[in-house]
Design goal:
Length: 129
């Protein structure tokens, strides 16, 4: 597991992930960007940015690194649904939805539902142009 690797090994792996543009690796990249050595965190952020730049469309860029379920929650949140309504729509508990919303805030770099919805809706509008 990458957690057992030395910082130099992690940095090189992260650079390779960024170079090949492997979108599925973004979740691992995000985990590395949050913890450990600062040089590893920076390499992870650089790789995420590199992968994001290679994705076509504003909405797809916004979704890089989101799980399918986080994507579902974001779409419903942007549509104005409450956590309870999202829970009912996706057959989840309210606590699970709250966890997804908090993860979305962190991944999108926002602190409110309105900001998350605006980022989502702005991305859709840019793609429509």
């Amino acid at each position: 597991a990458m957690a057992d690797w030395k910082p130099k090994e992690k940095i090189r792996a992260l650079q390779v992930m960024g170079d090949i543009g492997d979108r599925k690796s973004v979740a691992a990249l995000r985990r590395e960007a949050l913890g450990g050595d600062e040089s590893v965190r920076q390499a992870a952020r650089d790789a995420i940015n590199k992968v994001s730049l290679e994705v076509d469309g504003a909405l797809e860029q916004l979704k890089v690194g989101l799980t399918a379920r986080e994507d579902d929650v974001l779409a419903l949140l942007a549509d104005g649904q409450s956590n309870g309504e999202i829970a009912n729509s996706l057959f989840l508990s309210g606590g699970t939805v709250k966890t997804y919303v908090n993860r979305l805030f962190h991944k999108l770099g926002v602190t409110t539902r309105m900001q998350a919805a605006k980022r989502y809706n702005d991305a859709i509008a840019r793609d429509a142009d």
